[in-house]
Design goal:
alpha+beta; six-stranded mixed sheet; three-stranded antiparallel sheet; 4 helices; globular
Amino acid sequence: MPEADLGVFRPQALGELPLHVMQAHYLGRLDGVDCWTVSLEAIPSGWRAVSLRSAMQEMSAELMSLAVRAAQIIEWDRAHRYCGVCGTPTVLVPAERCRSCPTCKHPVYPRLSPAMMALVWRGKELLLARSPGFTPGVYSALAGFVEAGESLEECVYREVAEEVGVRVNNLRYYGSQSWPFPHSLMVAYTAEWQEGEIVPQAGEIEDAQWFSIDALPNIPPRFSIAGHLIRDTVTAMREGA
């Protein structure tokens, strides 16, 4: 799609569906089809609202990537209707994914908040934890947001020490995933335990334990990078990699 078409919604793209669109943004093409994300005034009769997290579990990787992009763009558009510098209503900029202030010219682009994820291992054990907001019984890798002036590696060392009180080394990059809650980029590592006993951070970590790879608790589903990270690491450990 030509850049000049960014943010220009054409109703015929959705056919004759009875939608009352508040705002729409072009996402790109999937399987040769133009895709849009739209904000609606109300849910049309006969439609059913589904949470994004639930929907992601049923989507293909390609469709999930599109849905993640859609959610983040809608959130950026919603959260920056007014200039954060002077309070003036912002406007969409033609040919860019940007909202700009007509008074002070301050531009706002969709932002990402990088967060590290660290799966700590020791021998044939994994250090898994759960926060108070987790689904009951589910444990996962450690995670936390990168602070200003901090590298991803520095974030791993700091967050692991803060959340469970242990030190790690031998970081190995695993992969990343865009995570639309609301606009995160999860960057996942494995890390080897170096020293220290588990001391859960009050208010952040409800429980943290060492688990044998042959006796893991409930872990996140595969649609999340945490689910892939844990399962792939277990497979590698069993194969002696």
